[in-house]
Hints:
Helix content: 25-40%
Number of helices: 18
Strand content: 15-25%
Strand order of the largest sheet: 4-3-5-6-7-8
Radius of gyration: 24 Å
Number of strands: 15
Shape: globular
Structural class: alpha/beta
Amino acid sequence: MASLLSSSFTLSSPKVDHLSSLSQKHYFLHSFLPKKTNQPNSSKSFLKVKCAAVGNGLFTQTTPEVRRIVPENNRGLPTVKIVYVVLEAQYQSALTAAVQSLNDNERYASFEVVGYLVEELRDESTYKTFCKDLEDANVFIGSLIFVEELALKVKAAVEKERDRLDAVLVFPSMPEVMRLNKLGSFSMAQLGQSKSPFFQLFKKKKQSSAGFADSMLKLVRTLPKVLKYLPSDKAQDARLYILSLQFWLGGSPDNLQNFLKMISGSYIPALKGTKIEYADPVLYLDSGIWHPLAPCMYDDVKEYLNWYGTRKDVSENVKGPKAPVIGLVLQRSHIVTGDDGHYVAVIMELEARGAKVIPIFAGGLDFSGPVEKFFIDPISKRPFVNSVVSLTGFALVGGPARQDHPRAVEALMKLDVPYIVALPLVFQTTEEWLNSTLGLHPIQVALQVALPELDGGMEPIVFAGRDPRTGK
């Protein structure tokens, strides 16, 4: 197939001008545009185009070096080195801003950080760099590590350094990786065996990853208030773990800055005795309705539509009863971290074309509840929307983890409108996708094309790709 795709093919000359006009409107990148030959101009002249493979097509060609921050001058302050592994790069911009702000203040410590996308660890040289980074790290953070073969690679690397590391924080991931958690006296090494309510979450074998994530979110909201009044160190360390999860799920630069202050002041030996003030996490709705121009997130669709009716920036037709209503499904993490440019663009474009939008989000991995709550009238049982477009690219229930298709189909059947799953290039930059003879990353084909189709999702159109430098 590769040889076939890299072979030359021809376009008749009438198509040339058409392609050129499209290129001026940025519909095609320069790498896909035909180059003119020196053939004489005639009605039978042809244009030769060659598509060449770039990269090995098996994993992203991005580098963790774009996520590495090394303080220029630590001014004699202790250095705190943080290594993190995440599924997607939406935390890159917010975490970079948090670390740079801490370093600009030049108080307490100098912060060094480097981040890896889990798919990058397929590359052996990148994996070796990851292992090398762990050797002198203080803190390891992992999140949404659900690809089994890569989870085992992360486990093997972190396990070697776990006893030496000052803190290991792993947020919803496969149990093998979650067991690496270590925060003072708090550990998850016995995950699934303890009788505490927290560990019992992992013992429910029939519970899907989406259900587990939602159960964890409920626990996150209540447990810190209880643990705060318990005297034992273990309870306090457990409380700080839950607070860490709240900071992480809150994902804004301010939340992440306070998260790093809390962990550093509590667990870095060089900072023991240093009083480092940090604010409590700013909490956001677990699920709701978000619009980039709205004054707040909404937990009630009627309130959202009331606000929508007061807008002065859209035409009366868009606000009127005859406008088509499009339901959008968004990932909360992209909103709170500020990696929402692709969402904003789609919302603005739909409104410019005359559609009303109801963009919903969820903090867990189960979007079926928000779909039923915000897209269906609870009294008439009729849908508020004419169609739904998921901009997450993932299955409706389970996201990038294990899917629950029967639950998703049940929710979508109640809705009974066309359901499109559009694709953001989670594991690739736009250029990698355009220049690859394989097209979509194989993992992305599985997670964001095949699995959503089992829900009933259709038309998997690529609508966004990552910037290789900023990760946005």
